């Protein structure tokens, strides 16, 4: 009994957890870490009142919530007991990511498949909006056994994540500078982008200019922008940075680089309308690979991390809880678009 109470007390330092959320998550943690197993008796309402000073109504509501979720069971006149030894059978996971682009769908499908059928998964989108991210985290805190989050880089996000138990958070896609020792499975944007541009330098120099479409204050990583600028300077490449592609503005003799698929599709459409030959009259580089870019116009050159692998590794962490701090490599895939 004392170990269960200790698990609940350990969450007192988690900012903004209500007493109800603290009690629910504390018992889930105790089961997950095998402090108690199936059939074990849980502390009575009176015991929790005496040890923690929680209101009777709060305890009753938390136990009712756990019963409803199938984690514990109530036996008439005897009390509350652990209902399952298989934590993952009842494990609830909150996945919070940017949006549902093709590459993020690849991550999701592999993550979902890796978790298996016995893990409950809810997905939320923050669309690179901090207010949305904050509202989502405040809504889900204390209600899930694991939180898998694609963070918005910045100090505000690092502070926000402190409302969640750090040992139950996995950061994916983007790394976050923080004083917390989080587990993560992410990609790297700075050095990998520079290396990709450098390997393509000779092909890019066949053209008069390279155009990079980049939207400031967007979800696009600033590290790629900085790498692009450094590449142009180091390799004496003539280039320009524009915020977005204007339909119909495609020009012969230029290489175009975009992170957004919709811009790429629009430019490829204009390529066809203008009768340009890709790889000769005009060139394209894209970020984040997918099967369409492998096929369309005999292939588009990309540099991309392996989102399928990222999803699989994230699922492995959720199931095994082994320390994970991994950067998935970025790979340059050269095709006929340069």
UniProtKB/TrEMBL annotation:
Record-linked CDD domains: WHTH_GntR
InterPro entries, sorted: Peripla_BP_I, Tscrpt_reg_HTH_GntR, WH-like_DNA-bd_sf, WH_DNA-bd_sf
GO molecular function per UniProt: DNA binding; DNA-binding transcription factor activity
A Pfam family the protein falls into: GntR
Top-level lineage group: Bacteria
Keyword Electron transport assigned: no
Protein name: GntR family transcriptional regulator
Chain ranges of the HTH gntR-type domain: 17-85
Keywords: DNA-binding, Transcription, Transcription regulation
SMART domains: HTH_GNTR (SM00345)
Protein's organism: Flavobacterium akiainvivens
């Amino acid at each position: 009994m004392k170990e269960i109470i200790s698990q609940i007390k350990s969450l007192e330092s988690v900012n903004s957890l209500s007493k109800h959320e603290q009690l629910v998550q504390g018992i889930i943690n105790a089961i997950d870490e095998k402090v108690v197993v199936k059939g074990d008796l849980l502390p009575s309402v009176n015991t929790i009142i005496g040890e923690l000073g929680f209101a009777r109504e709060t305890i009753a509501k938390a136990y009712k919530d756990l019963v409803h979720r199938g984690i514990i069971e109530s036996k008439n006149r005897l009390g509350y007991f652990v209902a399952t030894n298989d934590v993952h059978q009842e494990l609830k996971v909150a996945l919070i990511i940017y949006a549902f682009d093709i590459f993020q769908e690849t991550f999701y499908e592999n993550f979902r498949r890796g978790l298996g059928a016995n893990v409950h998964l809810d997905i939320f989108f923050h669309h690179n909006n901090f207010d949305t991210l904050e509202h989502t985290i405040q809504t889900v805190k204390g209600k899930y056994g694991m939180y898998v989050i694609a963070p918005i880089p910045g100090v505000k996000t690092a502070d926000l994540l402190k409302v969640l138990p750090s040992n139950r958070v996995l950061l994916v896609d983007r790394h976050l500078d923080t004083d917390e020792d989080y587990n993560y499975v992410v990609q790297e944007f700075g050095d990998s982008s520079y290396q990709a541009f450098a390997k393509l330098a000779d092909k890019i120099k066949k053209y008069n200019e390279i155009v990079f479409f980049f939207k400031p204050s967007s979800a696009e990583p600033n590290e790629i922008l900085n790498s692009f600028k450094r590449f142009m300077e180091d390799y004496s490449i003539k280039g320009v940075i524009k915020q977005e592609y204007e339909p119909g503005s495609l020009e012969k003799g230029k290489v175009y680089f975009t992170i957004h698929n919709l811009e790429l599709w629009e430019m490829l459409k204009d390529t066809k309308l203008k009768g340009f030959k890709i790889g000769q009259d005009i060139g394209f580089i894209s970020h984040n690979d997918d099967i369409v870019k492998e096929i369309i116009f005999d292939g588009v050159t990309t540099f991309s991390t392996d989102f399928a692998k990222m999803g699989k590794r994230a699922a492995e962490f959720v199931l095994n809880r082994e320390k994970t701090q991994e950067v998935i490599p970025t790979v340059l895939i050269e095709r006929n678009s340069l």
